[in-house]
């Protein structure tokens, strides 16, 4: 179960994501740093912070944030993120190994299929990404707005397979 601090940290993280989508990077950085001050073990904040620092060109701070995420994370963590950190650091074999461990740790958790779709899309492996996205959708996922807008899925969205999956699973507007 989540503690109050976990809930607050997640809430701040959700706001930070919105700031990031709007290219308000200073505000997003401040939010993630606040989340880390409240919960220094919240891996998600470190990977997102690393992503923002990468976007704005601060490689040293990005590397530090990604390394901290790797240090704190494990494949059985409730929101594993180290595979994204390894990938951002160019440590592809370790990223794939970690992703595989996440998938093996809990085969019943549909969220892991979505994480794998995002991960493989970031890697540019759109075929594998589409397979995991289809598994995610087959199991009843309904968050189509997220699927259509999340930056992690950009590579996959650029393929005909993506639109085919959306036509198959997304409810059509009348």
What does this structure look like?
About 3% of the residues have low confidence. With 174 residues, the chain is mainly α. The chain is globular, with a radius of gyration of 16 Å. The N and C termini lie far apart (40 Å). Helix 3 packs antiparallel against helix 4. The longest helix is centred in the first third of the chain and has 18 residues.
- Secondary-structure element order, N to C: HHHHHHHHHHH
* Rg value: 16 Å
Number of helices: 11
Average pLDDT over all residues: 86
Q: Which residues sit in consecutive blocks of at least 5 with pLDDT less than 50?
A: 5-9
Strand content: under 5%
- Overall SS class: mainly alpha
The rough form would be described as globular
- Report the biggest beta sheet as strand number plus sense, adding barrel if it closes: none
Helical content class = over 70%
Can you count the beta strands? 0
End-to-end separation: 40 Å
In short:
The chain is mainly alpha-helical and 174 residues long. Helices cover 73% and strands 0% of the residues. The chain has eleven helices and no strands.
């Amino acid at each position: 179960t989540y503690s109050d601090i976990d809930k607050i940290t997640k809430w701040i993280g959700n706001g930070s994501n919105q700031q990031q989508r709007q290219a308000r990077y200073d505000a997003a950085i401040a939010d993630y740093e606040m989340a880390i001050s409240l919960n220094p073990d919240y891996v998600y904040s470190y990977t997102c912070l690393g992503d923002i620092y990468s976007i704005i060109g601060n490689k040293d701070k990005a590397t530090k944030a990604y390394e901290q995420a790797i240090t704190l994370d494990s494949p059985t963590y409730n929101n594993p993120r180290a595979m994204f950190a390894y990938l951002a650091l160019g440590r592809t074999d370790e990223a794939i190994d970690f992703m595989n461990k996440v998938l093996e740790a809990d085969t019943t958790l549909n969220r892991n299929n979505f994480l794998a779709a995002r991960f493989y899309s970031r890697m540019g492996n759109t075929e594998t990404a589409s397979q995991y996205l289809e598994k995610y959708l087959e199991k009843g996922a309904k968050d189509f707005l997220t699927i259509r807008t999340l930056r992690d899925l950009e590579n996959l969205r650029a393929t005909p397979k993506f639109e085919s999956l959306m036509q198959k699973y997304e409810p059509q507007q009348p």
